[in-house]
Design a protein that fits this description.
The protein has 1682 residues and is mostly helical. Among the domains are: 230 residues, no CATH class; 78 residues, no CATH class; 61 residues; 129 residues, PAS domain (Beta-Lactamase, 2-Layer Sandwich), CATH 3.30.450.20. The protein is 67% helix and 5% strand. The protein is built from 60 helices and 14 strands. The strands form 4 sheets. The chain has a 5-stranded antiparallel sheet with strand order 2-1-5-4-3. The radius of gyration is 47 Å and the shape is globular. The two termini are 54 Å apart.
Amino acid sequence: MFSNKKQNQQEESLWEKVEQQLKLWLHSLIHELLQSQVGSPLIYNLLILIETLQLNYYAIHPLLNKYIWNTNFLSYYQQLIQYFQFNYILKGSQATTFLAILYICFSINFIVIILMVIATNKIVTNQKKNSTFLSYGVKFLATYGLLVTTIIPLPFFNSYLATLICSVDSPYTQNQSCYSGLYFFHLTIAVLGMIIFIFLCLVFTFMFIDMNPSSSIPFASPQTLMPLIKLAMKFLLPFYVTIDYGGKFIQQFIVILNVLFLFMLFMRYKTAPYYNKKIQSFVIFCESLIFWVAFCALVTTFLDQGTIDNIGLLYVLICFPMFWNVYRNIVHHRKSYFIQLSIKDFKKDEDVEVYVNVLIDLIESRENAESRIKLEGILKYHSKSCPKDTCYCRQLLHDETKDEESQILSKKWYQFVRSILEDSLEKFVKSSRLHLLHAFVQHEKLKNKFKALFELMIAREHKPNIQEEFSIFRFANLIEDEIKDSDEKTGDTRNVDVNKIVLFQKRFIEFQEIIDKSVQLHLDFWRELLEENPEIQKIESMGSKITSTVEQVKDQFQKLRDIYSNHIKCLEIYGYFLKDIVNDDIEGEKILDNVKYAKNSQSVNKQFVDQDRLKYGENSNTAILTVSGNYGQIGIVTNLNNELTRILGWSKADVIEQNISRIMPKVYADLHDKFMEHYLETSEGQVIGTERTIMCLNKDSFLVPCTLMIKVLPNLSEGIQIVGFLKDIEAANSILKTSSNEQDEKVHYMIYRTDNDSYVMQGVTQSCYNSLGIPSSLMYGNSTNNIEFTVDTICPDLLNPEFYEDLKSPAGLIVTIDTTTVQQNFLLDEEDSEDEDYPDANSGIGQTAGQLEDGQEIKAKKSKFKRTRVRMNLIEEQTFEDRKVNVVKFVEVDETDEGRSKINQEGYQGSAIEQQQMKEIERTQMMKQQWNQQQQIQQHNDREEEFNASDRDSNISNSSVNEEVRQLKDFKSLISEKTVPKSISILKKTVISLIIVILVLSGVELSFKLSQGNEISTGFNSIFISYQRTDIMADVNFYSRRVFNLANQIRLPVSPTTQQQAYVNDQSSLSTNVNLLQTNQFQNMKNIINLDSSTYNKLTTALYDVKFQQQQLNDVKTYQNLLTDAMIQYITSSSSLANSTLSSFLPSASSQGYVDSTIKNFFYVIQNGLFVLRKGTEFESSEIFRYYYNETDNFENSFKIIMILGIVFLLLSLVILIPYVFKVHKTNTRVLSLFGMIPVTEIKELVSRCEAYSAQFIDEKKMLQGEQNYQEEVDQSKQNDSPKGNQSDLEINGEANENDEVKDSRDLDQGDAKQKNGSDIRSNPQNQLQVPLAGGSDLRGSKLASNLKANPQAAQNSNIKGQQAQAANKNNPNKKGKSQEEEEADNQRSQKLMNSKDNNRKKVIFQFLVFSLLFITYFVVSFVLELTFLQNMRQVLNHLSQVSQRNSIIKYALVYMVEQITTDKIQMQDGEDNLVAFINRSYVIENEINTSSLQSYPSEFSSYFSSFQTANYNNFCTIFPQTPTLTTTECANVNSKMLQRGLKVSITSYIEGIRTFITNYVNAADTSLINKQKEFALNDYVVLEQMQFYIAPMIEFLNQQLLSAIQTYINNQNSIEEIKFGVFVAFVIIVFLGVWLPYLQQLSHKIWRTKGMLNMIPMDIITKDTNLKQAFQSGDILQAVK
C-alpha cells in the first residue's frame, strides 16, 4: 500500500506480482470481515468453553476408561462433551450418516470459498455499497472465521481424516468399502475438502486478528503463536484417535497430550495477553482446566495400579481451583515483573510489546488507586534509569495537571508511552511489531494520523510477517476511511475536490495510453497486411483488439467527461482520434464543436465563475504536482501534468522521481524536507488548504512568482500523497482580470537574506535579467565565484534602517538600482554573457539576434546593465529556524516623475536593434504566407492532373462503369447489413428449448419445496400437539388427585380458604385442563388420520391394557383398547370428575362394597393416566416424531432426482450447440480473406495517416519541444539556414506575445478557416505538416506548429519528397497498374487468408463448459441448500421434541411424588420406580436441551434462543408471561428468589426438592393421615407447587416462541425459494439476454466486424484495383458474407 509502484513493477518478478495481488485481495476481504464482526465477549467465551470441552474429550477419551475413574459423572461428562465433535457421531455410524457429514463439511468449505471469491471481487472493485448479498455474505464469512479459529477445526478434521484413513476394522469406516469403487470419489472429495479447509484455517488463523490495543473486537490481542499451536493440536488429536482406534498406544498418547497441554500453558505465560481482561481470565481458566484434567488422567493411568476408583476424579474437582489460582498468579507475576524493568533490560522486542501493553492497561485503569501507584512507580524508576537529560518522564513527573483534566492527563501519559517506544526503536530498529504498536498509540491515543501512517510505512519496510503485514494494511485502511469521513464532514472538497482533480489527471494519462495503444494497433494491423505472409491469428487478434481499444477509448473518454465535461485538451485529442483513426467524421466534428463551445464559455464566464474553480478548474492551466510523504520518499514528485513545463520550463523527466525542492530557491529547498517531516510528525500544518504566494525556480534558475495551494490526498492506496496546485501569478491575474482599464506593469521580484551582515541575494526573476542584466548564475546556490552577490552591491539604500518603514508601506520605497558594476565585479565577459542568452518574453528577439552583426549583439547585451530608479515594496518577511528572508517586488519608475507608476520606455522599444528585428519578423511572415499559398495551388493542380490522366487511360464504357459501381455499392450495402445466419437461429432455438426444460425443472423443484414446507410445518405442529397431550394429562392427573385428597382431608386447605372454596378452585382448574385435553385429542386424531391418508407407511397401531374399576371394591378388570378409544374414555372420566360433588369422592359414597361412579372414574383417570395411557401417548408422540424425521430423507431423494435430470439435460444440450458454433467460426474465417485484396499502396497510405496522428497527438517529446523548450528551438533556428524554417519559427514566436483572450479568439477563427479549407490529415497525408497553424490552446494547431518549429528542415524534406513522388508519377504515366511480381504477392496473401483455418475450437468448448457448469452448479447448490435446510429441520425437530417433553416430565415427577405420599406405594411400572425414572429423565432431557441449544441455528431462531438463554440462565421472571394469578413480583420471590437464577437452575432445584421431599417422607416412616396432612402443608411442598406453577408457563411460553420461530423460518425459506426461483428465472433470462444473445451477437459481430472493417477501404481504391474489385464481386465471398 505504501510502496513505490513504478519501482516495484521494475523489480518484482511475475510471481511476486501475483503474490502481492493475492495478498491485497485477502487483506481487503479479511479487513471487511473484521469490520463486520458482531461477536460479543460472551459469545467468544462460549466458543472458548466449547473448544475447551472439545480438547478435554481427548484427556478422558473412552479409550482411557480402563485406566481412569469409574463413575457415572465421568460417563455423563463424556456423553456431554462428545456432542461437540463428529467423533462420536462417526463412530459406528451408518454409511449414509458418514457420507452426509463428509459432504456437509465439504459443501460448507466450498460455499465459503465461493463466497470469499465473490465478496473479494465486490470489495476490490468497490461494489460493496448497497449490496444486500455482500452484507449477508460478509457476516456469514465473519461468523465462519470466528468459528474456524475456535470450534470448527476438530469436527471437520475428524470427518476428513476418517475418510482418508479408511480401515474395515475401524469403528469409523467399518460400514465403508475402503479404497474401492465409489469410495475413491469420496476420497477425492475428502482430499479436496482437507486442502480447502487447511487453507481456510491458515488464512483465518494468521489474518483473522486485530493487534490494536484499542480494538473492541473480543479476540484482539498481540500477535502470538497460540492459535497456530491450537490448530496443530486440533489436527493431531483426531489424527491419533483415527489411526489408533483400538487404544494400543493410549498410555503414550496421554503422556504426549500432557506435554502438549503443558507447552500450551507455557506459551500462554510467554505470550502477551488478550486486550480484553475478561477474555484473558477466562482463557487462562479454560486452559488450566484442559491441562489439569489431562494431568489427573495421566497420574491415574500410571500411578493408580489397583482397582479403578474415583480418587483421580476427586483430585480434579478439589485441586483444580488451587492449580488455576497458582497459574493465574504466575501469569500475573510476569506482568508485575515487566513493570520493574527498563528499556535496557529488554532482550526482545516482544518483551517491549508486553511492557507497553501493561503500561497502557495501567493508564486506562488509572482511576484505580493501585494502578496510579504503579504508574507513579514506573515513572520514578524510568526517570532514574533514563540517560537522556530531556527525558519526557521528568516532565511528566513534575507535571501539575489535575486529575479532573482526564483527557489532557491521558494524552501526557501516552506521550510518555510514545517516548518509551521511540527509545525502544533505537534499540530494536527493525522491529515491525514495535513500529506497528507505535502507530496504534500515535493514532488512537495521540490523534496523530500522519505519524501513525509514517510508522506503518517504516514497519512495512522492515519485512513484517504475515500478521504484521495484514495489520499494517488494516490500520492504514482505517485511517484512510477516517480521513475521507473527516473531509466529507468538514466540506474541504466543496471548492477544490482534490480526489476529483487527481483522479482526472490519472485517468487522462490512461486515456492517452489507450489512444496510443489503439493507434499502434491500427498501425500494426495495416503493417501486418503488408507482410508477404500475414499471420491469420494475429490479424484476427489485432482486429478484435482494435475494436476493443476503440471502445475503451470511448469509455475512458466518457469517464473523463463525467469528471470534467469541457476539458479542451481531452476533447481535441478524442475528436481528432475519431476523424483521423476511426474515420468517424460525424462524431469527430461533434466533439470538435464542443471544443469551440468550451473555449467560448471559458472566455465569457471568467467573471461569473467561482474564483477557486476558475483557478483550479478543468481548463485553468494549473500545474498539479503529487508529492510523496512516504517513508524514504519524502518530497519525491510522483506525478505531475504538463503545465509545469509551461510555467517553469521543467519537463516531466526533469522533475518526476526528483525532490520537489528542485523547483525551489536553495534558501527554501534546504528546509523543505524538514517542513514536511514536521507536518508528518505532528499532523499540524499551517499551509494545508490555504492559497499563498511563493517563489519557484524555473529551469534557468530564475524566480517565478506563483500561487500555491496544498491538499492532502485522502486516498492512501499509494501512501501519503500531498497534492500541490501551482499557478503562475501573471497567468492567474490575466484569468481573473475583469477590467480592460488595468495597466500592465513589468514587475520584478527578488529575495535576499537578512539574518547575516552580508545580505546575500537568493534569487531574482527573469525580468531582472532582461531589464537590469542580473544573471541567475550569481544567486546563492548557483554561483561558482568566491565572492557572494549581496543586495548592497546593486542597491545599498535598501539596507538603510531609516527606509525600512517606507519599504513596508503600500506606497513603497523609491531607491536606485545600479547594475552597471555587476559585469566588472563578477568578471562577466562577453562569452559568459552569450551563455546567459535566456529566452525573452518579447517576440522575435532571440530568434533574429543570431542574424545581427557581432558588434550589435554585444552592444545589445551590454545595454542590460544600467542604473535606474525603482519603486520597491516588501511583500513578505519570512523567518525560519536559522535564517530570515525578505521577498520584495519593484517596478521601474520615471526619473523625472518618481511618484508615478510609469514603466521606463528607454529600453528595447526605442532601440534601433528592435526596430530592425520587427521589420525582419514582418518580412518573414509575408514570405511564409506566400509560400503556403503556392503549395496549396500546386497540390490542387497535381490532383487535377492525376484525375485527368485517370480519365484518359480508362477503357471501360460508361455503362460498364456504372454496372461495376452498382455491384460494388450492393456489396457495400450487403456488408453493412446485420443479418442473422441460419446457424445462429438454430443455436437460439436450441437454447430456448433448454431454458424451458430448466425452468420447468426449477418450477417442479419450487412446487416440491413449497409442499415440503407445508408438510414440515404440519409435522412440527403435530409433534408439539402430541407431546402437549401428555403434558395436559399430567395436569389432569394432578388436579384429580388434588380434588380427591381435599375431599378426603389428606390435604387441608390453606387458611383462610375453606374446603369448599379450595374444592371449587381445583375443580375449575381440572375442568379447564379437561377441555384443553379434549381439544388436543381431537387435533391429534385429525393429525393421525392425515398421516394415515398421506403415506403408505401407517403409524403403528397398538392395543393397550386399560384398567377398569368394577362395581365391587376390589374388582379391577383389564381390557385392551386402542389409544384413541382409551383417551376418549379418559377424557369422559376426567370430565365427570370435574362435575362431581365433594362428597362423591368420600369412601362413604360407596356402600356395601360397591363403588360409586365417581370413584370408578377417579380410578380410571389415576391408574391409566399415570401408567398405560401416559406411556401410550409418549409412544405415539415418538412415532409421529420418527415419521417426520424420516420424511426428510424422502424429500432429499426427490430433489436428488431433479438435480440429476437437470445435469443430464445440460450435458445433452452441449452435444447440439457446440457443432453449430464451430460452423459460425468457420464462416467468419472466410470473410477475413477480403483483407488480402487491399492494394499495398493504399495500405501504406492508411499507415501514414496513423503515423501523422501519432506524431501530432501522442509523441510527448515533440509536443514539449514545440510548446515549452523554447531555447532549444531558438538554437535550431539559428543553425538552420532554410528560410522556411525561419519563417515557421518567427510565426510561432510572434504568436507567443499575444494574451490569452486574443489567442482564444484567433483559435476560433483559424479553426473555422481550417475546416472551410478542408485541411485535415486524410485529405493530403503527404502534406500533413503544411496544415495552417492554430494559435493559443488549440492543441492540434499548436502541435503542428511545434513540429515545424522543432524540425523545420524535416518538414521541408517531407514536402520535397511528396513533390518528388508526384513528379515521378507524372513522368511515368505508363506506370498505372501493379507489376506482375506485386500481383503474385497479393494473390499469395489473398490465398493464405482464403485458406485460413479456425483455431477457436478449444476456446468454444471451454466457454460452453463454463456456462454449463454454472447451471449445473445451481442444481447442485440448490440440492446442497436443501440438505442444509433438512439438516436444520432435523436439529429443530430434535430440539422441539426435547423441549416439548420438559413440562410433562417435571409435572409427572410431582404427580408421582403426591401419589406415593397419598397411597404409600412406590409408583412402579415395568419394574421401575416412575418417580426416580422421571427425576433421571429430567436431567437427561435438560442435558439434551442444553446440547441442542448450543448448535448452530438459522437467524430466524435468534430471538427464540435469546429468550431461551435469558430464561435458562438469567432471571426469567423479567420475561414471564403474566396472568391475574401469576405475576412477575411473586415470581421473583418464590423459593428465596430461586427463579431469578434461571430456568435451568430452577428445574434442578425443583427436581432435587422433589427428591429431598420424598426421601424425608420415606425416612419418617409415618403414614398416618395426620402426617400426610402435615406433609402437604409443609412449606417445602407449597414451594414445589409454586415453582411448578411458574416454571410450566415459562416453558410453554418458550415453546410457543419456538413454534413461532419455526413457522417464521419455514415461511422465510418458502419466500427465499420463491425469490430464488424468481432470481433464477431472472438469471436465466439475463443469461439468455445478457450473455447468450450477446454471445450470438458477438458471433454475428465477428462477421460484422470483419465486414465493417472493409468499409475503411475507400470506393476509389476498390475501383482502381482489378483484383480487389473481382474479389468483392466473387460469389464465394458474397456467400461467405451472407
